[in-house]
């Protein structure tokens, strides 16, 4: 929604710094012919450093100063904690097949002993006493009724997972037994008392706590819960999210044409939000219509509304005016981060928030990870990822004052910064494993940087896109 001529010169310079960092410095082969891409890096100074609303002198006059990046994340987390207290959402009883990615709201206590009966660990024979043994005609299979007890010197064919007959002293594996000339079973190696019998309760006793409250339900937890007798799990409900995509210039199909571009955020955000623990209820494209935005915001019953675009100060940037019209409290109004500095977080109600993502697609990713991730994680009661650092293989230019988030791939013990990391580009992030947090001033080759993993690289449960 940034229309031509609406950017202050200094902001144009600022954007050029981003583009130039992406293309001139880090990309050896920039495409030609685009003046934005070939502009020389310019210096942003604190004076005239454009405010979050875009006016160059805004920051000097405005009570809304951009928030430092770590503080913005902490504010989002705090806001979510306050919303959790206000909303008192009751835990859900969720069928196992809908519980992946949720957080346990009650401990997972075993509903049975595991194993729940003495069971054979191997295919072979259950034997009683020392061999040779007389083998019964009827074998014992898994899932069948309780077999008759063995008598000393007797053996019975048994399958892995089948119930051990009473008075069995060991299980002899198929490959360790042979039938002698008299039709009796002989062991071909020593038999140790109790071998290959899994005793009832070996893993847990009924009532034992298997997993505490706060556990993320992974595929393994689902398996454990099923094994322990559960049909449903008591879990924290997913935070409900409505996505509002702003911008008259957006096409939903076909190739960009006539000054129109494809909506990159409509397809990208819902699965990403799901991976962050959200239930995405609606994705609405509402153009550059302040009334429609107002209606959508006031009608939403979501825990979090995510808007895209319209955060700056262009003539059709309606997010701030609508927030002020609905009496929202701006908790974060601009963040000292590149890309994405116009991102915002507002409290609409005690238990309802709005994250305004900038329209530039990588700037939207930055807002997603800076504000939406901590907010959703806290609402979903998910554990915070362990912070970690890795050395950056190459030097990364920094912004003079702001943190930069730069797409990287992880290679060996380090991270390699990627090209095409300008605010309007997705080519870098599409190839990335993580975002490197580059402090103001930049970092030299080999310098450690904090990394934010992307959901598809952390694997396992982080990948819950559907
Ligand atoms: N005068 C100023 N102008 C701008 C400033 C500023 O501080 N002062 N900040 C710039 C920065 S940085 C960003 S980021 C953008 C943020 O602008 P908005 O959030 O208002 O976003 P729009 O203007 O609506 O769009 C920006 C850009 O992104 C494209 N876009 C929007 N939505 C999508 C989408 N769903 N898929 C793909 N691309 C999208 C849009 O067409 C624009 O090109 O403002 C700068 N301007
Ligand atoms: O530099 Mo903006 O913040 O494109 O994202």
UniProtKB/TrEMBL annotation:
Residues 10-19 have a biased composition (Acidic residues). GO terms for biological process: Mo-molybdopterin cofactor biosynthetic process. Residues 55-64 have a biased composition (Basic and acidic residues). One of its GO terms (cellular component) is cytosol. Its cofactor is Mg(2+). Residues 242-378 form the MoaB/Mog domain. Pathway: Cofactor biosynthesis; molybdopterin biosynthesis. It is an enzyme of class 2 (transferase). Residues 1-89 are annotated as: Disordered. Residues 65-74 have a biased composition (Low complexity). It catalyses: adenylyl-molybdopterin + molybdate = Mo-molybdopterin + AMP + H(+). InterPro entries: MoaB/Mog-like_dom_sf, MoaB/Mog_dom, MoeA-like, MoeA_C_domain_IV, MoeA_C_domain_IV_sf, MoeA_linker/N, MoeA_linker/N_sf. Keywords: Magnesium, Metal-binding, Molybdenum, Molybdenum cofactor biosynthesis, Transferase. Its EC number is 2.10.1.1. One of its GO terms (molecular function) is molybdopterin molybdotransferase activity. It holds the Pfam family MoeA_C. Catalyzes the insertion of molybdate into adenylated molybdopterin with the concomitant release of AMP. Belongs to the MoeA family. This is Molybdopterin molybdenumtransferase. It comes from Streptomyces pactum.
């Amino acid at each position: 929604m940034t229309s031509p001529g609406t950017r202050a010169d200094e902001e144009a310079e600022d954007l050029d710094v981003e583009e130039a960092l992406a293309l001139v410095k880090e990309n050896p082969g920039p495409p030609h012919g685009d003046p934005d891409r070939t502009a020389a890096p310019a210096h942003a100074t604190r004076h005239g450093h454009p405010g979050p609303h875009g006016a160059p002198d805004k920051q000097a006059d405005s009570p809304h100063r951009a928030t430092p990046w770590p503080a913005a994340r902490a504010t989002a987390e705090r806001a979510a904690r306050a919303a959790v207290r206000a909303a008192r959402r009751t835990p859900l009883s969720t069928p196992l097949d809908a519980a992946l990615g949720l957080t346990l709201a009650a401990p997972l206590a075993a509903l049975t002993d595991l194993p729940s009966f003495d069971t054979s660990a191997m295919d072979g024979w259950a034997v009683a006493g020392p061999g040779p043994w007389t083998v019964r005609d009827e074998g014992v299979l898994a899932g069948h009724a309780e077999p008759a007890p063995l008598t000393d010197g007797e053996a019975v064919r048994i399958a892995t997972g089948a119930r051990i007959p009473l008075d069995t002293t060991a299980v002899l594996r198929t490959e360790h037994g042979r039938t002698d000339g008299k039709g009796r079973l002989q062991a071909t190696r020593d038999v140790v008392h109790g071998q290959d019998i899994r005793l009832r309760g070996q893993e847990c006793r009924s009532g034992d706590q298997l997993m505490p409250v706060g556990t993320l339900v992974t595929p393994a937890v689902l398996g454990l819960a099923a094994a322990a007798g559960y049909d449903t799990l008591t879990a924290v409900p997913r935070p409900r999210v409505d996505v509002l995509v702003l911008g008259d210039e957006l096409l939903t199909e076909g190739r960009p044409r006539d000054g129109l571009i494809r909506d990159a955020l409509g397809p990208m955000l819902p699965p990403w939000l799901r991976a962050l623990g959200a239930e995405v209820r609606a994705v609405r494209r509402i153009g550059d219509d302040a009334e429609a935005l107002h209606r959508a915001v006031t009608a939403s019953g979501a825990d979090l509304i995510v808007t895209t675009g319209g955060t700056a100060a262009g003539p059709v940037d309606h997010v701030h005016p609508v927030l002020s019209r609905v009496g929202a409290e701006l908790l974060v109004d601009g963040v000292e981060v590149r890309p994405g500095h116009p991102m915002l977080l507002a409290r609409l109600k005690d238990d309802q928030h709005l994250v305004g993502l900038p329209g530039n697609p990588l700037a939207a990713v930055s807002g997603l990870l800076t504000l939406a991730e901590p907010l959703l994680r806290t609402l979903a009661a998910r554990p915070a990822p362990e912070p970690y650092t890795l050395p950056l293989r190459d030097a990364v230019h920094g912004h003079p004052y702001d943190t930069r988030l730069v797409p990287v791939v992880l290679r060996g013990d380090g991270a390699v910064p990627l090209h095409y990391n300008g605010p309007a580009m997705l080519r870098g992030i599409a190839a990335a494993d993580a975002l490197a947090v580059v402090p103001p001033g930049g970092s030299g080759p080999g310098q450690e940087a904090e990394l934010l993993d992307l959901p598809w690289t952390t694997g396992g449960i982080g990948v819950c896109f559907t």
